[in-house]
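task queued by scheduler; priority normal; single chain, no ligands, no partner chains; default sampling; output format set to structure tokens
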Amino acid sequence: MTAFAVNPVLSAVYAALVPFIQQVTGLPPAQVVLGLGNRTPMPAPGFVAVQAITRHRLRTNLHSGVTIAEDETGSVMMEEGVELTVQIDCYSYPVSAAQPQSAEDWATMLSTTLRDAYGCSIFPPNIQPLFADDARMIPLVAGEEQYEERWSLEAHFQYNPQTTVPQQYADVLDLELIDVPNLTPQ
């Protein structure tokens, strides 16, 4: 019997989004992180953190046909349309010669490119940006009682995870006709 499976998974959205952020901001791979794990110190400012925060269904499921494997097990694919909201937080020190772009610059570039055909052309067809909110300044007080610049925006994506489930099927049909008398009153 076929096992339950889903594709693409949330990690596929991250796998498409992280290189996009690196390309737009020019940050190296180590400076774009997925969320902030517990008991993990934040990187030094000059990084972007990405975290999925909500998802909701956009439509009723779509079903595709039954697939029959050689071992005579079957499966059917159900596709769910999902709007996934991802929070993107950009952290930086104030602009300096060492860091000529700020968190606000990165947030502006990301918001602009995610609301443009450019963003749609970069992502795979099954993961597409819908829109991005305007960035907002949310200062962060560090452990040293210093304010760090943090600009946050929410990017909304549509992706269509497909869940494969076991499905019974029949490949042979024995049909026998039975004559039924007319039972309508006369």
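post-processing summary
- Residues 5-166 form a domain with the Alpha-Beta Plaits fold (CATH 3.30.70).
- The CA atoms of residues 138 and 150 lie 5 Å apart.
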